[in-house]
């Protein structure tokens, strides 16, 4: 079974992921006050997405995560788009990242000391489609079978566009992770993915289950290449990873948000941003082999992580 992450892990301390998509696009002037969030720009301004992917590759990211987090048949249908057009837009999210990657890699000087970057198709949770912050609470009231039925058609479309792997992210519960993992095993045996949970504290997923149990439930699944935490406060990450290391049989990943708190009711962020790079050595010590940023982080943070990684040299490899 081919693992696209292996060449990176063989030569460097960790795989560097990109940073936020939606919040960075907003910072650049995009209007994302829409239930589709960043997926709105797949309709309104796809080139803005491609440019941001390019900026992350230039900052040093080894992986770009596509603008499909909040893209779904249901969400696009609410905008009056039929299934054919919705599928086209979901495929476009992958195509934009691939185009940015291929343009970046076509420049000879960009290849110096680097492995050809990857594209990870974002698979957001069911709660993201509700556009009410449900992914930070979980508890949708859906069965395993219902969650499988929701994710299956979107997975099929995203995989048809040819990403290197899937980023199954901001998952609030072990149940939703199990649903996606079963669909991959049953219907898409050649697909590869990482699974990242959003967590409420040092030990629990957003829905309240034990994080270590969610990680342990994915052990032994060959299609799951890495497992860990995203869109959670940086202060919680080291403890979560340290606990997961005892039950995981695969690399761990961490791409938390800035540490600010999102208020789903008024659609804004509160609090002060943390220093991502200041926390990162603790994540590496706790076992993280994939590190990046989520909401409210940008190319500047990814560039700083790239600089820190270069300072580690071969000594930084686990």
TrEMBL record:
Q: What keywords appear on the UniProt entry?
A: Metal-binding, Methyltransferase, Transferase, Zinc
Report residues binding Zn(2+): 231, 294-295
Q: Which PANTHER family match?
A: HOMOCYSTEINE S-METHYLTRANSFERASE-LIKE ISOFORM 1 (PTHR46015:SF1), ZGC:172121 (PTHR46015)
Instruction: Output this protein's name.
Output: S-methylmethionine:homocysteine methyltransferase
Q: PROSITE patterns from the xrefs?
A: HCY
> Which gene specifies this protein's sequence?
mmuM
Native organism: Crenobacter luteus
Say if the entry is tagged with keyword Cytoplasm. Answer: no
Q: Per its Swiss-Prot or TrEMBL entry, what cofactor is needed?
A: Zn(2+)
Question: Is Membrane one of the keywords?
Answer: no
Q: Where is the Hcy-binding domain?
A: 3-309
The protein's matches in InterPro entries, at most eight in alphabetical order, are given as: BHMT-like, HCY_dom, HCY_dom_sf, Hcy_S-methyltransferase
Give the source's domain of life in one word.
Bacteria
The terms under GO molecular function for this entry are: S-adenosylmethionine-homocysteine S-methyltransferase activity; zinc ion binding
GO annotation (BP), single: S-methylmethionine cycle
């Amino acid at each position: 079974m081919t693992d696209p992450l292996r060449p990176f892990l063989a030569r460097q301390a960790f795989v560097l992921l990109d940073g936020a998509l939606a919040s960075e696009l907003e910072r650049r002037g995009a209007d994302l006050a829409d239930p589709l969030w960043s997926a709105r720009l797949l309709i309104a301004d796809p080139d803005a997405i491609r440019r941001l992917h390019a900026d992350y590759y230039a900052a040093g990211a080894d992986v770009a995560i596509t603008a499909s987090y909040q893209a779904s048949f249901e969400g696009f249908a609410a905008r009056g788009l039929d299934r054919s057009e919705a599928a086209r837009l979901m495929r476009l999210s992958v195509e934009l990242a691939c185009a940015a990657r291929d343009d970046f890699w076509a420049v000879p000087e960009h290849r110096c000391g680097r492995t050809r970057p990857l594209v990870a198709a974002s698979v957001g949770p069911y709660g993201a489609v509700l556009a009410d912050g449900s992914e930070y609470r979980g508890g949708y009231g859906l069965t395993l079978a219902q969650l499988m039925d929701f994710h299956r058609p979107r997975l099929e479309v995203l995989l048809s566009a040819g990403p290197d792997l899937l980023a199954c992210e901001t998952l609030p519960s072990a149940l939703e992770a199990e649903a996606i993992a079963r669909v991959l095993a049953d219907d898409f045996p050649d697909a590869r993915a990482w699974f990242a949970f959003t967590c409420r504290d040092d030990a629990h997923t957003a829905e309240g289950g034990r994080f270590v149990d969610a990680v342990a439930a994915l052990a032994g699944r060959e299609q799951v290449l890495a497992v860990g935490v995203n869109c959670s406060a940086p202060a919680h990450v080291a403890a979560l990873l340290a606990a997961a290391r005892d039950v995981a049989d695969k690399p761990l990943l961490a791409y938390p948000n800035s540490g600010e708190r999102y208020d789903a009711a008024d659609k804004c962020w509160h609090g002060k941003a943390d220093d991502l790079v200041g926390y990162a050595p603790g994540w590496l010590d706790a076992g993280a082999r994939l590190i990046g940023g989520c909401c409210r982080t940008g190319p500047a943070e990814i560039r700083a992580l790239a600089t820190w990684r270069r300072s580690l040299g071969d000594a930084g490899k686990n």
